[in-house]
Fold this sequence. Notes:
CATH superfamily of the largest domain: Ribosomal protein L6
Strand content: 35-45%
Radius of gyration: 21 Å
Largest sheet: 4 strands, antiparallel
Amino acid sequence: MSRIGNKPVSVPDAVTVDVKGSCFSAKGPKGELSREFPPCVTLEMVDGVVKVGRNQESKFARAMHGTARSLIANMIEGVGNGYAKVLEIEGVGFRAQMEGRNIVLALGFSHNIHYEPPEGVDMVVNNSSEVVITGADKQKVGQAAAQIRSYYKAEPYKGKGVRYQGEVIRRKVGKAVS
Length: 178
């Protein structure tokens, strides 16, 4: 039995939820999200709480039971409070700047990298070495942060590159002169 899937998801007052069959939508101050779930997952709204169940005992249904509950909890959290990821840029000459809605990264290559964020994701550059990515959809925020980080991951010798805030880079010793 799914332990996560059995936990009910409480809905805050600022968020309105709509359940139609296997379609779930949530609307709040940070935006609006909706998602279609497989027919093996049952959704019901009871007294300000969303309950997730399943009508089959197949392996897929058991897997989707907990997944659907987690996705619903993330949607409610996202439209209520939103999600944010912070990236730090470290290195001589490494910087980021906003150009309209897009972000321009100078990461030591012969060219600048222009990144256009997906719809529903906002970016802010603080003091050219910190990028704050915010949005209501947890998956889109994480994907945008991972894409920007993938352009130049922090390397272990000097530590320069793009890293998540609070990420620890294990440093290596450089060449030893004998």
